[in-house]
Amino acid sequence: MTVSAHPPALFGYRKFWASRFGTAPFLPMSRAEMDELGWDSCDIVLVTGDAYVDHPSFGMAVIGRVLEAQGFRVGIIAQPDWNSTEDFLRLGPPNLFFGVTGGNMDSMVNRYTADRRMRSNDAYTPNDEGGRRPDRAVIVYAQRCREACPEVPIVIGGIEASLRRVAHYDYWSDKVRRSILFDARADLLLFGNAERQIVELAHRLARGTPIAEITDLRGTCFVRDRLPDGWSERDSTSLDAPGAPAPKPNPYAYVAPCATPSTGAATATTEAPRHETEVIRLPSFEAVRDDAVLYAHASRVLHLETNPGNARALVQRHGDRDLWLNPPPIPLTTAEIDGVFDLPYARRPHPVYGDARIPAYEMIRFSVNIMRGCFGGCSFCSITEHEGRVIQSRSEDSVIREIEAMRDEVPGFTGHVSDLGGPTANMYRLGCRSKEIEAKCRKRSCVYPKICGNLRTDHAPLIQLYRRARALPGVHTISIASGVRYDLALRAPDYVKELVQHHVGGYLKIAPEHTESGPLALMMKPEITSYEQFRELFERFSREAGKTQYLIPYFIAAHPGTRDEDMLNLALWLKRHEFRLDQVQTFLPSPMASATAMYHSGRNVLQPVTASDAIPVPKGLKIRRLHKAFLRYHDPENWPLLRDALRRMGRADLIGEGKRRLVPAWQPAGTGAQPEGRRKRDATHRPR
Questions:
Q1: Residue limits of CATH 3.30.750.210 in the chain
Q2: Residue 251: is its pLDDT beyond 90?
Q3: What is the average per-residue pLDDT within 548-569?
Q4: Do 307 and 273 touch, CB atoms closer than 8 A?
Q5: Is 533 helix (H, G, I), strand (E, B) or coil?
Q6: SS3 breakdown of the chain: % helix, strand, coil, rounded to 5?
Q7: Whole-structure pTM value
Q8: Do the bridges between strand 97-100 and strand 154-156 make them parallel or antiparallel, or are there none, so unpaired?
Q9: What distance in Å separates the CA atoms of residue 363 and residue 345, rounded to the nearest whole number?
């Protein structure tokens, strides 16, 4: 059993016999729709926690249309009632398998705030209604599918399954949970965007291969009892013990930086030869559950095995069985990703929802995704763990076709394209100059601590795409709403000029995340000087265009490695630059992110983990609220909390009036948890 580095072309399979039924206007959600299509059964039934929107920004629509293009009959069960099995039998038992996802977001992230408060709304539900999906939706849905049809294989996937594929720290229960595959009682887990593996899986099942025998697909996880014959094992179940007379094999072997000190460029000689039948054994679930430092170590090893070019399989013991993780899938080629986006999406919600408003759809209704993946490697973000760090870009023609289809087919289009982007706005067609080096590289980021010398940073293809899109008849405005990676943009001033003068509607959101070196290093974000340089370009090009435009920076409070003093310095920076943030973000430990491992363990997982090297971690509601209050230093509700903190920190000199003070000594009547004195002036007064 070995996985292939050269998978079949995504659309190169012989179509399944049911292709004779043609294309459905919408994938059916009821027996009546199946009857209209002439179907007696579904080959595959997809269960999702989101409302069904037939648009390429919704994962279930993409997977459903990709499988339909292979000739399979695919039905959708959206937001079923999980209190019984009745809804899960709405379309009858599928011939091949159930495909289960929690939706476009992890169900716990979707349902709870960073303060663990339940949200009252759900943007992926008609009329923004909350409570239409259960906590841990993948587990609940998969168990109901098993109860409804015990003999039908169950495959789980999507962001929730992807990020919970191994033993993982769960912020909402404040404990390490085992792989979601065990709790869901599913047969197979697909991680990543998963088109490759689900297409191959469907064709093999259609040919009669039992799902238990399908163990060689990249991007899959499954359970087995023992190591297969012919495989060797690298033991990474414990930390190194420096100075031991006979040290164990280094679990971080082959992790030399891929940049040479002199050039910063990657070399092709930084990795030992690959072992096609070597597996890395992670610490067991029980070990990482009971030892937070071992959890940090396991997280680091896992993140070093994410490059499809050199990643090895991983195993992790859960009780008396092994969880087996195959290497990540090979990224889609441009032709393949074009094929995915060119499928016949209706580009609107299923008619069953009538006139109900689905906020997530409204947000992306007139936007176009131009690429996938991110090589930034920010430790608090899970994009790399899900989509990978290799950028998968669509062709210019494919993007233009989608804009034209949106213009001609989507009701309500007025000529404004709300975004041309993706995980980032400006990584389109960027990547390593050498495929050989890219396949061997083991760096977590191509841009941190500095931009790799082997990274192509030419933004000319993106500029050309913008110009061609702007010239389309019926298109008068194209906004860029995806986040701009400003350290990359500094390498391409022509791009910044194009962006600022044609694609900013007064405000541009950007994410420096912090101002202080300590937190930024653990975030794997550039120093604040890069932001300052970008701001200078932004303002200059705005002036040249005769426009008054503003940067809106985003910052994170309470990230691992952040001290009270760091947040104070950030607040002083905000006041000095006259920023008064309306929306602020408190760090949310999402499953599998490196920063989540730091939060749980208090260790820096960006370097070899030791038991002694601890980092500060803002835990607990009180300190997290304080750090958030520093970001909103201008809100009178936060002044009592900030005054107490400043006195405790020995910075009472920052209490009072004037530009160099952070908060006043007085409190407007009716504000703050601890009102101090009476109102001295109108609350709208803004002392400088």
A1: 365-503
A2: no
A3: 96
A4: no
A5: helix
A6: 35, 15, 50
A7: 0.92
A8: parallel
A9: 17
384 — pLDDT class (breaks 50, 70, 90): confident
**Residue 310 structure tokens:** 């050199």
Task: Report the C-alpha gap between 521 and 516 in whole angstroms.
Answer: 9
Topology of domain 365-503 in CATH is: Transcription Regulator spoIIAA (3.30.750)
The CATH class that applies to domain 22-224 reads alpha beta
Place of tokens 């997982």: 605
Residue 511 backbone phi and psi in degrees, to 5: -125, 80
Structure tokens at 564: 């009270």
* Ramachandran angles phi, psi of 224, nearest 5°: -140, 165
What is the DSSP code string of 88-131?
GGTT---SSEEEE---SS-HHHHHB-TTSPBPSB-TTSGGGBS-
Q: Where in the chain is the domain with CATH 3.40.50.280?
A: 22-224
Dig out the tokens for 367 from the structure. Answer: 């936007």
Report the candidate in 338, 413, 347, 344 with the shortest Cα–Cα distance to residue 55.
Answer: 347
Please tell me the predicted confidence (pLDDT) of residue 244: 37
Helix (H, G, I), strand (E, B) or coil at 316: strand
Select from 558, 564, 561, 576 the least CA-distant residue to 649. 564
Q: Which residues contact 665 (CB under 8 A, 6 or more apart)?
A: 643, 655, 656, 657, 676
How far apart (Å, rounded) are the C-alpha atoms in residues 285 and 300? 15
